[in-house]
Amino acid sequence: MDHGDWIRKKFRRFSQTLGFHCLPLEEMENRLERVRGGMRKEGIEALLVVQKMDFYYLSGTSQDGLLFFPLEGKPLLMIRRELERARAESPLKDAVPLKSIRGVPSLIRKHRTKLPKSLGVELDVLPVREYSKFQELFPGIRWKDSSVVFREARKIKSPFEIDLIRKAGEIGGKVYEGGRKILKEGMTEIEFGGLLEAVAKRYGHEGLLRVRSLNYEAYTWHVLSGPSGGIVSQSDSPMGGLGLSPAFPVGASRRRMKAREPILVDFGTCYHGYQADETRMFSVGKLRKKFIDAYQACREIHDAVLEEVRPGADCEALFMKTLRLARRLGYGDSYLGPPGLQPRFVGHGIGLELNELPFIARGHSYPLEEGMTFAVEPKIVFPGEGAAGLENTVAVTKDGYEILTPVGQEIFEV
Amino acid sequence: MDHGDWIRKKFRRFSQTLGFHCLPLEEMENRLERVRGGMRKEGIEALLVVQKMDFYYLSGTSQDGLLFFPLEGKPLLMIRRELERARAESPLKDAVPLKSIRGVPSLIRKHRTKLPKSLGVELDVLPVREYSKFQELFPGIRWKDSSVVFREARKIKSPFEIDLIRKAGEIGGKVYEGGRKILKEGMTEIEFGGLLEAVAKRYGHEGLLRVRSLNYEAYTWHVLSGPSGGIVSQSDSPMGGLGLSPAFPVGASRRRMKAREPILVDFGTCYHGYQADETRMFSVGKLRKKFIDAYQACREIHDAVLEEVRPGADCEALFMKTLRLARRLGYGDSYLGPPGLQPRFVGHGIGLELNELPFIARGHSYPLEEGMTFAVEPKIVFPGEGAAGLENTVAVTKDGYEILTPVGQEIFEV
Fold first, then answer.
1. Which of A201, A275, A341 has the highest number of chain B CBs within 10 A, making it the mutation to test binding with B?
2. How many A-B residue pairs are in contact by the CB < 8 A criterion?
3. Tens digits of per-residue pLDDT, A37-87?
4. Domain limits of chain A?
5. Opening angle at CA B361, ends A107 and B309, nearest 5
6. Which architecture characterizes domain A156-413 according to CATH?
7. Which of A378, A388, A379, A397 has the alpha carbon at shortest distance from A305?
8. In whole angstroms, what is the distance from residue B106 CA to residue B115 CA?
9. pTM score, two decimals?
10. Which of B47, B86, B115, B146 has the smallest number of CB atoms closer than 10 Å to its CB?
């Protein structure tokens, strides 16, 4: 059978019965309109969308290709691989084959209109070498950085997107509940992490977490026990753990977990591209008092943030409030990490990527808006001993918030 | 306890007892010398190393930072986070704190020498926005693309590196052997994949596979059963599978696996950053004859490649040989994918990344050299029905090859 025939005739039914859902047309049109708003504001006539998640956000497919999106007129999908599948996945009607990057200008002229005078492209991630090729292909065009357009458009989630994060959060709930049955004294961190991930995948977790960055990688399996939790690493977070090697110096290690020590599990899940991020504490037997107290402080800080979450609340002010509260609770030197190594945020926006707007952080003085989603993660770190912390992903609602990761917040003692 | 104190006093012992091994000084010096050779050839006076795996290759740490590496003189590690850990992990003696990218020129002047006239940086991956910042910081400097230097240096693996790939291959062996016990009729592809990964992690697989690309992501869990194996996707490989959603349209899906159908498992493992790639076939009960035959053809093609693997063999000629053999065996229209969708390679170099040199591919006419490592993966695809295939990672030896993924090559029938 011909592959294209199979995709045209069978793909839709085959995929839908397997819970593989395509983007609804109406949701896509709302996104296109949001992005058009940003293009007008930035004075960008047309976009060449190169980055996978921006491309997916607007087209509903992450097949390999480029999207040309003029302010006036319809978007054009140019697909390297696989064309028929992109047509089946995307509600965009127009998808044409892209044989070579050199063909992009003529595809645009043929299928759309004359070339625009200015073209936006995501300069925050586009490699120099690819940019140089584009510059040669479009002589005389004015290039603009479109990353701000996407960052702004994507920071407010639609009810459809929030529902996908809620579903990712439900998978996370199953992981943490499952963890109660899996955790045993003497098991290594990485074994526990692997088994938690197997639970997550069984329920549809997509396995990779995405970050918009050249070098920053997201690890799905932070399981940090005892002293592992006291180790800081490359990641801009309160602690990183030992990891498995200097090539992966973050997350679970081969350390065997012991009774009564803190076991911090920071686990991200992903459903249809949308991520939820969540942290809970486990212990085998009763946790040592020092860490119960630290955990209670994290809960208090977490609750103090949520108490003020609503449209209009200032993100930097929320962050500063947590610093004051941590000091008052006696954790000034351990809140968000050891002295000198504390990251400057307690919350990060989350959606298709783990580092979206808003940041609940120093230097981020702007208001929360309805539809924003972010993870709030107060943590307390004692080098040589361990870490305590709690994390939930929340959505800002009309007059407050909704927790999208609603599994129990007690310490999971087994 | 102070974090820096803990790292200086306890980290080495803590990490070594957990199988977290640092790069030996001698291995690092060999690598520096290899890269110096490339710098001389390309006329590059000094490198600013920005990409994580290039940075790790030369320094032995993947803490967040930049490496300045002058042709004359010692490399300088500039570390954003975490400095003490970079000092503990890297055999490089000099590591200095990097507060802001703006401080790079003065750090170089202070700790090394006057600024060079030309500076190499990896333009194949460096985002335009970061490059622009560097251009402002180093006015008047001539920038050169250093990616070729790394690609060439890293294409030949040392015995130390080959041993790490061998260890990754051993983990893969445990995964496939473990799969025999895990696979059950009616299990979903993603559940099977998750459980295989849990086995891999238990034995030290690091979970993420790395690819040098803006958008290309590697998925560790290709489990493709029956018609899933006949579906092509974005990835430049014979088939991609359905995946879990349009955001992850590759790899395992929620499809329940049935008896007698082909179940292709393509599983990459990673140990201390070094990857092995491997494919085997499973079936519940006896596999349908069509796929047994196709699998035998893949084995024949695989063996025909290996038969000629030795220093001096031409990569393109090896690829063309497989095309002729596939046609002779009656698989001209299904070898490496459906007509019109066939990738142009049957093998890819592998090491810290999945797309290194050499490529056993059309257009890659250059000789194999001792120390090269690559995966060879003949596959046969029938849209609507399924796929068959075999993959091993091999090292080129003085007069032949070594298979680094030596698990049994029979069909794993359960």
1. A201
2. 310
3. 999 999 999 999 999 999 999 999 999 999 999 999 999 999 999 999 999
4. 3-153, 156-413
5. 175
6. Alpha-Beta Complex (3.90)
7. A378
8. 9
9. 0.97
10. B115
